[in-house]
Structure formats: C-alpha cells, structure tokens
Amino acid sequence: MDYCTAMSSAPAEPAEPATCDLAGLARRRAIAEAIAREAADCLLGFRGRLTSVGWKGEVDLVTEADRTTERLILDALRRLLPEDRVVGEEGGLQGPPEAPFTWYVDPLDGTTNFVHGLPHFAASLGAAWSAGPDSPPPVLVVGALSAPALVGSREDACGLTYSAARGLGATRNGLPIAVAPHTELGRALVATGFPYDRTHTAHALVGPLERALERCLCVRRLGSASLDLALVADGTFGAYWEPRLKPWDFAAGAVLVSEAGGRVTDLSGGQGMLASGDVLATNGLLHEAFLRDVLA
C-alpha cells in the first residue's frame, strides 16, 4: 500500500495530495533529522555561555543561540533542499514561494527554559506539503526535533532526537515509538502550554486547565510545544493542548504524534491548526473525551 492510499482511510484528515511520494518524504526526513542533531549541538555550545538576551515582546525572549542556530538550519536546507520554501521563527525566509514543501523552523523551542538553565528545549523543523493554491489545505508531512539536554535512558545519554514522515512511522533515537494506551482521562498525564499573550487572556485559559486538573491524572507545563508533542508521541503524555501557537511550534511534533498512532486537531476537533495555531494532540483514544470534557 502506498503513502497516499494508506492515509486516505482517516476521515478526519484533509485529502492527501496525489503526487506526494514516499521516497521524497523519506529523503526529507533523513535530512531533517541530521539537521536537527547538528542544530542541537550548536545549542549545547551556547548553553551556560550566553552573552546577550533580548526581547521580541512582553514575555518572549530571543538570544544569539536562537539566531545562530536558525542560520545553521536555513543554510543546511538551502544547500540540501534548494527547491523547498523555508520559514524561520527568527525571520529567516528563503526558497520559492510556490514550492510544494514549506519548512517551519524553530531553532530553539523553549528559549525561556534555555536561558534559565532548564533542560526542556529543542531544535525543531517540520514540513508541510501542498499541491498548489487551488488544492486542499497544506498537510504536515515531515518532522524532526532534537533535545540535546534530555536523557531518556543509559542508551539515550546524548539527548533525544525524534523524527517522522507521513506513512513512515515515528522514532526516538532511531527506535519506533507509539502513543500511550490509556482509554480514560483519569489515567492520563497531560500537558498544556500558555500563549505569550497570557497576561491578557488568562481568564480564557483557566476553564480548560481547571477541568483537566479535575478529570486527568495530572497536568504538566514544560514550556516547549515541540517537546510536549514529542512526549505525546512516545507515550509519556496522553494529551497536550495549547492555543495560538505558530506553525514552527508544532509542525514537527504534529507529524510525530500522527505517525505514532495519535490524533492531532485544532481545539474544536477540526483540521484548522495551521491557520489558527490551536492544537490538541492525544493518543487518539482520549481525543473525543478531551474535546467534550476538558475543552468544551
């Protein structure tokens, strides 16, 4: 069964593009994983050695680590995939606007954690595919992220690197991963995140958080959307939700979750994530209950 046939049975997903082939996805996945590892090494070189920390907004930090690592990623994509479009969090933009593949790059997801010495940060890049301006909405198809300061086991002592491509599964440090088997919210550890305008919208965040605290095993807030999604994909979290993200925050992680057997939608259960930035990712088994009992 080829990629397009295999994915056509999921009714909640947008229609798959007829020309998206497994070979092209596999190549981009391998490239993305290698770039994510190189970017993670770059971040480690800055850890504990930052010389400047700036602000992009009221609570949004930016450092030379963000900017240097984004340049590294964009340079690598320009060299290896010059036909693809690239959009970086720190303003990097390259490639033909009409390109079928668009990469969304977050060179340092979890900058605030990084600045304060917390290990929850990652370099992340994910690609969307579109058949053209008159076709169905773009589909997220490839993702990779590397968290160099996290240790999963003795064998993972050099950090965690995740990658996935549509129809090709998801891995952590080269080994297949799968979402958690929980069928009840009360058995699931879940995660959330707060948007940068939270000081002005806190009242809207309280309701779902309160209901999650009441209905789920417990709630965590780690401060890195890409890593939260990766932790849904590898079975650590049963669910993760966050409103008003940017595409570079979740592009890679959304592919990981889908390929690990989970489900990713917007906060109403639709497929408008790229437009709205509202993301709910679960193991699939909890999705309808989460929409009904936590987000409704």
The overall strand count is 15
The first-level CATH class of the largest domain is given as: Alpha Beta
Q: Which fold does the CATH topology of the largest domain refer to?
A: Fructose-1,6-Bisphosphatase, Chain A, domain 1
Radius of gyration equals: 18 Å
So, the CATH homologous superfamily of the largest domain?
Fructose-1,6-Bisphosphatase, subunit A, domain 1
Class by SSE composition: alpha+beta
Distance between the termini: 37 Å
Low-pLDDT segments, ≥5 res: 1-18
User: From the 3D coordinates, which CATH architecture of the largest domain would you assign?
Assistant: 2-Layer Sandwich
Task: Tell me what portion of residues adopts beta-strand conformation.
Answer: 15-25%
Helix proportion range: 25-40%
Mean pLDDT: 89
SSE string: HHEEHEEEHEEEEEEHEHEHEHEH
- What is the number of domains? 2
How does the major sheet shape up? 8 strands, mixed
Number of H- or I-type helical stretches: 9
Strand order of the largest sheet: 4-3-5-6-7-8-9-10
SSE layout and pairings?
Layout: H1 3-7, H2 22-46, E1 53-55, E2 61-63, H3 64-80, E3 85-88, E4 93-94, E5 101-109, H4 111-115, E6 122-129, E7 139-147, E8 160-165, E9 170-172, E10 175-176, E11 189-192, H5 198-215, E12 218-220, H6 225-233, E13 239-242, H7 247-259, E14 263-265, H8 273-276, E15 279-282, H9 287-295
Parallel strand pairs: 3-5, 11-12, 11-13
Antiparallel strand pairs: 1-2, 3-4, 5-6, 6-7, 7-8, 8-9, 9-10, 13-15, 14-15
